[in-house]
Amino acid sequence: MEPKQVSSQSGADRKHKQSKKRKGHRRAIPQRTCVGCRTVNPKREMVRIVRAPDGTVDLDSSGKQSGRGAYLCCNRSCWETALKRRSLDHALKVTLDDTTRATLAAYAQTLPETSEIMTPVSDQENH
Ligand SMILES: [Zn+2]
Q1: How far is residue 114's CA from residue 74's CA, in Å, rounded to a whole number?
Q2: Euclidean distance between CA atoms 79 and 82, whole angstroms
Q3: What are φ and ψ of residue 11, in 5° steps?
Q4: Among positive and negative, which fits the CA dihedral 88, 89, 94, 95?
Q5: Cβ neighbours of 72 (radius 10 Å)
Q6: Which of 8, 48, 58, 116 is 20 to 30 A removed from 20 (C-alpha atoms)?
Q7: Does an H or E element contain 76, and which?
Q8: What percent of the chain has pLDDT over 90?
Q9: If one looks up domain 31-109 in CATH, what number appears?
Q10: How far is the CA of 20 from the centre of ligand 1 (A)?
């Protein structure tokens, strides 16, 4: 009787265990579509308009009011487009009354005409 030396199968069952999932969760920036120009922008760069449960439409500067919301870029042309085409009415599923439209139009006047970033005029020096 010869004792067989069973060689342990080391190495054979070495499992490739590298299924470490990267846990660093990507910061998803919430994005919304502007009801004026239909461009998708980061939510925080937009202005939210909310229709409260009682049907009143108002600006929601905090972005936290409950109700149905619509988003617009911070530029006047989007607001004017949205008011003119009644995109806001559609988005909020409501008919904006004259007072609300006037309020929104007035707010639009406080916004820059376009969202273009002002380029510093540094190379306009006349010698
Ligand atoms: Zn827009």
Answers
A1: 8
A2: 5
A3: 95, -30
A4: positive
A5: 30
A6: 8
A7: helix 76-84
A8: 62
A9: 3.30.1230.10
A10: 41
pLDDT band per the 50, 70, 90 thresholds, residue 123: low
Which amino acid makes up residue 122? S
- Quick one: pLDDT at residue 77? 96
Q: In the block, which residue shows the tokens 């660093």?
A: 24
- Which structure tokens are listed for 21? 């999932």
**What mean pLDDT is predicted for residues 5-14?**
58
pLDDT tens column, 15-63: 555 556 666 677 889 999 999 999 999 999 999 999 999 999 999 988 8
Using alpha carbons, select from 41, 59, 63 the residue that is nearest to residue 96: 59
| Residue 99, both tokens | 């007072």
From ligand 1's centre to the CA of 103, what distance in Å?
18
Q: How far is the CA of 77 from the centre of ligand 1 (A)?
A: 8
Task: State the distance from the centre of ligand 1 to the C-alpha of 114, rounded, in angstroms.
Answer: 9
